[in-house]
Amino acid sequence: MLVSAPFFAEDYLGSPDFIAQRGFGKSEAEARQNALAALSRFFQVSISVNSAERTTVIDTDSRTSISEEVFVNSKAELFAVHFTKARFDRKQKIYETTAFIDREEAWKICRPRIESDLKTFEDFWSNAEKQKETLLKITEFSKAGKFAEKNGLEDKLDFALVIYPESESLFAKTRNQISELKPLIKRLCGKFAVQVECENDFENSAAQAAKSSFAKIGIVTAESNAEYICHIKISLNGKILPAGYFYTPSVTIEISNGDRTILSLSEQLAKTGAKNEQIAERRAYSAIAECVSDLLNREFMSF
Prior knowledge:
By secondary structure, this protein is α+β, with helices and mostly antiparallel strands. It has helices at 28-46, 103-130, 134-150, 153-163, 168-189, 205-216, 277-300, and strands at 18-25, 81-83, 87-89, 94-102, 193-198, 220-221, 228-235, 238-241, 244-247, 250-257, 260-268, 272-274. The strands form three sheets. It has a five-stranded mixed sheet with strand order 6-5-7-10-11, with helices on one face. Strands 1, 2, 3 and 4 form a four-stranded antiparallel sheet that branches. Strand 3 (87-89) and strand 4 (94-102) form a beta hairpin. The radius of gyration is 28 Å and the shape is elongated. The two termini are 37 Å apart.
């Protein structure tokens, strides 16, 4: 529960050491709610990332605690929020209070959490740089981007910048790396070609799905003389049952450079079927083509 503290608004409003906003209301609770809303709007204006709202508030007791839910779901959540003692204006018949965040206090809380994510991101980046195969560089840089996106890393850095402007120099390298990821992956994708081969394909559906997935990220496919071979193996695993024709396909994608397998992906699909054999087979291959796209997109598509 957020508890009002016996502090005076004049100590916080206009001070560079605090982020503070006033609130007014017909009751102390309404004044606190409006002050908190004003504080949230301050962050909304200060952090313009995809126009996302960052207004979730973590309850604190006095001036200390922080919830484990901070920085969840890519929302920069307000924490370490305190209130001045409410004042009542008898003439206006209205309460006034100030919600404030101590920058130093908030920075001490959020810095370790941000640095933990930065360490993981940097590990992904370092691993990508160590890869000798261009194809694997792409997949590893993609993992770095997915991690940054999933964990709202840019949001956290923006939040930290609002709370503690001096943090800008600490995180400049990571900011640059995040902004460079997409053009870096695009440049790497343009350095080679992939030849797609598929066994037991139906109307070239699986091979076409692979080519479309590669094209989406800028990897050229060629009919010959490509640096990498993408070999797709399909097992239909069909059965004829009293109710009709049923398939439980499996898909394996192997990408090789010469006699070396660089990447291997596989998935077992759910059962599909129909009374008519041709319809059942079409349904199976439609699912297979979708699976091929999903496997390659998960591995190569960035964020």
